[in-house]
Amino acid sequence: MERRLRKVRTTMSIHAHRRTLELLDGEYASIHHGRSHDFDDLREYQPGDDVKDIDWKATARSHVPLIKRYIASRQHTLLLVVDSGRNMAATAESGTTKSELAVLVAGVLGYLATRHGDRVALLAGDEQRVLHEQEGGSEAHLERLLRRIDEAISVDGPRSSLAQVLETAVRRMRRRALVVVIADDLAYTHDLDVHLGRLQARHEVLWVSIGDADLMARRGDHRELVGVESGIGLPPFLRRDRGLRRAFDEASAERRARLEEGLRSLGIASVRVAEEATAIGTLFRLLERHRRARR
Fold first, then answer.
1. What is the CATH number of domain 4-9+76-293?
2. Which of 15, 81, 254, 267 has the greatest count of CB atoms below 10 A from its CB?
């Protein structure tokens, strides 16, 4: 059986040149920069930085305002909250399964965390169960988490209930953590708003949506599709109907806009991962957006 983590690392190498990987690595590290006795490096002063952090001697030598950055001495926890309901077994926008993209996203972020000495934990669930894996900091532990995600998602599995998984995260996570929610292309609901608001009050929360497939056959795929949630087929002739396509596009755009608006109102940075080839760049934008929002 192929190791999930090895596949994640291979994908990172294929789809991101060295500079992008270094930036992704740096953006993850910058989330946890804090004041301690461990000096990290110097960087150019930017509006919003604390004036107390300016290194005046280095500034005098370079003629550019430079500030000191410190590495927080404590170990951090990355909590992966994953929707493992049967919707995540459906086809993603790129043609691969959503579960594969979810494992890739979890693997990339988990790998960055372990590289920085942080610990990774997992909560994955559906309407019938919530799987909890305690935090750990080794690659073997991360491999086990990725396998649990992959094995939990099945087209024959229970329906999704992300609100239930988030409620469990609120109850169990007492110590401050970086929480990354990996979910279906879903609608924003009152329950999500309540649980995310409680999580965001205690932790730092990021959101990754796994993009739905284009059901309207615009890429030349005229197979009959069956919804994993309903089990009802969508005949090819309906998918080619222009009016239905327009209504589908409008409904999808409205659902995504409501989700983005709800997350933005809570101060949660979010992105939508549609395919493996662009996942690395998309995650980089997520980390950068989160870092900028915290200034």
1. 3.40.50
2. 81
Using one digit for the tens of pLDDT, what is the confidence trace for 135-179?
999 999 999 999 999 999 999 999 999 999 999 999 999 888 999
Query: Exposed e or buried b for every residue in 143-160, given b needs 16+ CB within 10 A?
Result: bebbebbbebbbeebeeb
Q: Which amino acid is at 289?
A: R
Cα–Cα distance for residue pair 18/295, rounded to 1 Å? 27
Domain parsing of the chain, residue ranges: 4-9+76-293, 33-74
Other Cβ atoms closer than 10 A to 124: 26
Rounded Cα distance, 36 and 72, in Å:
6
- Name, in order, each residue with C-beta under 8 angstroms of 116's C-beta and a sequence gap of 6 or more: 28, 29, 32, 76
Residue 222 has pLDDT above 60, yes or no: no
